[in-house]
Every structure is written in structure tokens, then in C-alpha cells.
Amino acid sequence: MDQIDSDNDFADQHSTDDNDDDPLFDYYQDIARSSFDDMVHDQERNDLYYQAICQSIKKLRYKNPTKAINVLDIGSGTGLLSMMAINATADNVIACECFEPMAKCSRKIIDDNSMSSKINVMNKLSGQLELPKEFHPNLLVAELLDTELIGEGCLSIYRDIIQRKLVDPDHCLYVPTRARIWIQLVQSERLFHCHQFRKSYHFSDNFEAIQSPSSVRNCFGSHLLHDIQLNRLRPDVDFEILSDPMVIFEFEFNRLESLKYRDHKRIHFPLKRSFNQPMMIFAWWDIDLDDDGKISLSCSPYWTRGFNSEHQVAWREHWIQTIYYLPAFAFDHERQLNEFNHNHINQKQTLLIDCYHDQVSFWFDLPDQNELHNPIDVMESESWHCTCGLHSHLSRTRLEWINNVQRYQQYWSCLNERMSTIGNEMLDLIYFGDESILPFVCSQHPNVEHVWIICNDRKSYRFFRTFRRQNEQKIILCSHDSFHQKKNPSTNRAYAIISDLHFRNQSSMLSSMEFLQHLYRQQQFIRNNQNGPRFCFPHRIILRCLIVRFEHLWKCMAPVCNVKIDDRTELNLLEYDLLIMNARRNVDWQFDRRSLWEYCCWPLANETRDILDISMDCMDKNKSMNELNSLLTNGIDKIVEFNIEQLKSTKIDHNTVGIVCWIDQYIDGNDKIIISGGLENPNHLSPDEEIKWIRDQQQLVTFLSYIPNGYQRLNESEKNIELKFQIKMNPMSIKVEIL
């Protein structure tokens, strides 16, 4: 009955970015993406690196007072570590930076700080670097680490340095010297929903639950890296601890035998409690910055240090933590594996974990829990990946959204209410959107004849086809073209339109606003057919905004200006600010897309403001069509006003001030049931209480540093500020300025 013969009916999806043919666009984008975000703002990192550099130089001077201190800085970026070394009395530095715009920028920064006579910036890959014969490094400084530690290729870079004898490890100190990978076993149903689909989706006591197909239940789950601010999770609320932290790998950066490209360890974990939820692994690293191991930097979450709050540890975004997931099928209680029997594990109170790494990544597996030895061929094991084909293109945030059963219950309640007003009339439902369980839930209603799912691409078609095989056959799959060209429900039967406004786009920023184009398609369909829909879910969509202050997220956007390295010295990085800000203004959206629940912030106003209010009023087909048509052709300008007396009275740092936007959907006829993409509690905003954001949705955020003359306009304002939002569809953009 489908109107799609196969997934080959879909044309390949390509980006239609107007900037694809602009050679300057790629140039500016590379520069904008080279931003080190909050790294240069990380005072603890800067202090510890400087202490380690000073201590290493002091140690070298003590060992041989007459020998020159020659420093090699790999991946030098802004030149900050090179300048730290000169300030700590190093004699000469060769700084290696492969990215040409950053190398040029760092030369200017070094010159601005009067150190160009002692620092030579070489624009090369470290693997292509050749040192002058008279230059023999006795101190190597580098910052080559990412959230996974090895994801930027530090193992291969350090190996190459040793193998090509750029330095002599026995006569050269390293900053940092060594690193350790830590893991901790935890259990959590909530976090598991970011990894695997539910086995079933129960939305009503009177109807059968929607079942996940066996191919999904037998799948490993999502293989995407889940980097996350673990400090925002609450022990015994968001997860339960199953084990003490344990070191699984240690790397000595100056020892070739320690820098293995592939390695494996089998770890025996004593369990602190019985497990009754899916397990996962929290991971982080720490480093010894000096040779003696006295100066260390740790990314461990607060509870592992004996603290009670995230505010007791340094905040950073560039080095956060990671969740690694184990094979999802191992935690299916109904189909337990013989080698992973849950009761047996709880009786033993121990668990075996196989830990692996290659040059750039880590992964984990569950061996037969009856084994203790290391299998001979275990080094050949590869990382797990999705086998069902449904996880690989879904973000973990979207997977969590799909698994939110409470939301389906809200839709079901509203569907029942709407159906009760039209008697026993049979309806067809038309679903606009990408991957969702919503059309399967709605298909269970006895007054629904069919649910037509308009698939946007191959990925959504495969998702719906896979779930339909396991569930209700009322589902009809079609593409946009086949739906309009062939017989559809509007020609001979009453119908309604449903959507949860989820649409994928190659650009994560565009997908936040792409729903407007799909709403326009819906309205075109309604206007072109004599029979209007009985109702629409949602029937009203509002784009909202709020002015807030962030505790830390602003550090990812704000100019650096100066970096203080000791009581007497500040280094000028203005040239870096100019480079990055200019590039961002040329290529970036003004707004960034973030999961704001991971970042502390407080409201600077006691209520939100509406930027865009679109009605899907089925009784007046022209009304909403005209609104969308105006937006599509000319764009919309909207001015909103916020009272900022609190901001003025408390002298809040302007760098911390941000503007957040999100979408709220009204799905019932009385505007009482809201599917919010923003606030957990929209009716309560207090300047003294941290905002709670929806976890399975991302929001749009920008800062004053991204708004032209933002600081100046805010200073000129007295009690109120006016924000002018400009929304355009061709090309799609949302911008804000302060009037």
C-alpha cells in the first residue's frame, strides 16, 4: 500500500548552502573553528601549565646552570605556552603550528608582547618539522589533548618526535609528562535512553504498547561519542555508582614503549551494589604536568574528589568527560546472555570489562563473565557499532527525545480529546517530520483509518519501515512527491495533520529553524485541497526568548584580551580576538546550538518574550499561510523589550549576558498542554534560582560579544533594552541586535 517502491526513490541529500562556491567562506570557517573556546579562559589550566614550565626550567638550570634552555612547543596555537616559557627565563623557543592563519596570528601576538627575538614560529605539521642543527630542545611543551585525551593524535605525534629524534627523551623534560585514563561503572535508565531505543512504548493502559523491532533490540546501540558535563549529573538521582574509579591506561609521553597504537586490558571491577539498571562507563583523564608528578591537572567529576557540588571544581568545556556505553542487548532482562547472566553477576558482586584503545579512541566490551584470562586474539577486537541502521544518524539528544514516553502520553490525551469532538467519524492522519514514535502511537486510536507518513529522506523511511514491520499496519509511507502526485486522503476522507517538528539537516544550526519550511509545506497542502484538516498537532508554535546570565558558558564566546600568568605579567592576546571574531562574523550564525541543561544560568528577566507566534488554525486556511508566506519571502523583524534593572543594580559582568531562544508547541485546543523546547517550568522564573532546561532538546544561545556594539548599547540603556530579531528563510538565519 506504500507509495514508495524502495529507499532508492529518494534523491541523494546534498547541502544547498549558498556559500559552497565561495573560496573565502572555507577560509573564514577554518579560522572560526580553530577557536580554543574556553581553553585560554581556563585559569586553572594556565596556572598549572605555567607552574610546570617554571619548575622544569628551574630543574634544568639547577642541573646545568650554563646550558641554554631550548624549548620546543608543539601545536603552539596562540603562542601562549611559548611566551610562558620565555617569561620563565627560557632562552629560545621554536613553536610549531600547522594552521597557517593561527601561525601568522601568533607571530603578531608574540611581537606585541616583545618576545619575537626569542620565539620562532614555524608553520608546519610536527611530522614535517626539522630543527636547526644547533637547536637541541631540553624542554618539550605541548597541548595536544582532547576530551578523550588521544583524539587529536597525541600518541602518534609523541611517537614521531621520539622516533625522528627531534628530542632526546633522556635529556629533555616534558610538559605534560604523563596521563592516566580513569573509568567508573554506573547504572542509569535515563542515560541508557541516550543509547538505545526502549523495548516498548507504553502510552495507554487500554492499548498495546509500541514495540521496538528485534533488530533494534539486538543492536549494540548508538556508537557516537557522548561527551558531557558529568558534573551536571546528580549521583543517586541521574545515576547510581557501581564501582570506585579505576585507572585503565597510563601513558608516559617520553617513553616509546608506553605509546602503543593498540592496547587491551581486562579489568576486574568489584561492585559496590547489585545492579538492576543498564550499566555504562564514566571516563575522564588526569595529567602530570611535571616530571616529578607534583603538579597535576584532573578532569574528574566532583563526587570522585569527595566534594558535594560541581562548584568546588574548575569548570571547563574543552576537556570534559565522556560516557562509554556497553552493548545494549546485554541489558535486556527478557533475553539475557548466558555469558552475562544478571543474577550471577549480582551474586558474585564483580564484573569483567575489556578495555581497548587505538591511536585516537577508546572502547569497551563485556567478555564472558566466567573467564579471567586475557584471550590471545583480544587485540584484534574492533569497536562496536550500530548494526540495525537506526542509531547511527540520530544524535543522543534526539534518541532521548524519541524515548520520552510522557510526551507521547500528552499527545495521546490531546488526540482523544480532539476525536471526542468529531463523533464516530474515521480520520486519516498525515505526519510531517523525521524519526519519531508519534505516528505509531496515534495509529492505535480506533477512529484512525490510516497514518500517512511523509518521509523526507532514506534515513527516515528506513526508520519508519523498520518499526512498522513490528507494529500496526495502518501506516502508509510516502515521499513528498508521491504524496502529492498520487491518491492521498484529502481527496475523499476527513484528515488531520500531526507533527513533533523534528527535522534533520546537515547543519545542526539550520535544523533549529527548518521546521518553518516544513510548516509552509503543510499550509500549502491545506490550501491546495478543498477539504481542510479537522485539526493540527501542534496547532500553535511560538519562538520565545529570554535574557540570562551564565556562570561559565560565556567563556566559549567572549574575547580573551589579556591572560594573567603571574602577579606581574599579563600577556596581550588581542590579535587572536580580532582574528576569531572577524572570522565568526563572516561565516557563523550569530546563535549557537547548545544543550543548556549542562550549563548553569539564571534569568535576568521575570518572564519570556515571544518573537514569532504561528497559528495552524484550520478554520482560517489563509491566516497562517500568509504569516508563513511573509516570513518565507521577506523575513520578519520583531522588537521585544526586557527590563534590565537587576543587571544594572548588581553590576553583572556583561560578558556573561546571553540571549536564549527556543520553540514551544501548543497541542491542545485550550493552549494548556505545551511541548516545550526550553524551560522545564515556564511559569516560574526567579533571578535567584538556576534555570532548569529541557534535557532532550537543544536551545539557541548568543552573547553580547556576538552582537555588534552589544556592550556599548547595554551600557547606554537605563532600565530597559530593546532587542530586534531578524528572521529570514532564504537563506535561513536568525539575528539579533540591541536598539
UniProtKB/TrEMBL annotation:
Matches recorded under SUPFAM superfamilies: S-adenosyl-L-methionine-dependent methyltransferases
PROSITE patterns noted in UniProt: SAM_MT_PRMT
Ranges for region Disordered: 1-23
Sample GO molecular function, one term: protein-arginine N-methyltransferase activity
Domain Protein arginine N-methyltransferase: 239-328
Segments of skewed composition (Acidic residues): 1-10
Signal peptide as annotated in the record: none
GO terms for biological process, alphabetical: methylation
EC class of the enzyme, as a word: transferase
Entries under InterPro entries matching the protein: Arg_MeTrfase, MeTrfase_PRMT7, PRMT_dom, SAM-dependent_MTases_sf
Keywords: Methyltransferase, Repeat, S-adenosyl-L-methionine, Transferase
Pfam families referenced in this protein's UniProt entry, alphabetically: PrmA, PRMT_C
EC number from the UniProt entry: 2.1.1.-
Family, per entry: Belongs to the class I-like SAM-binding methyltransferase superfamily. Protein arginine N-methyltransferase family. PRMT7 subfamily.
PANTHER family from the UniProt entry: PROTEIN ARGININE N-METHYLTRANSFERASE, PROTEIN ARGININE N-METHYLTRANSFERASE 7
Cited function: Arginine methyltransferase that can both catalyze the formation of omega-N monomethylarginine (MMA) and symmetrical dimethylarginine (sDMA).
UniProt protein name: Protein arginine N-methyltransferase
Organism: Euroglyphus maynei (Mayne's house dust mite)
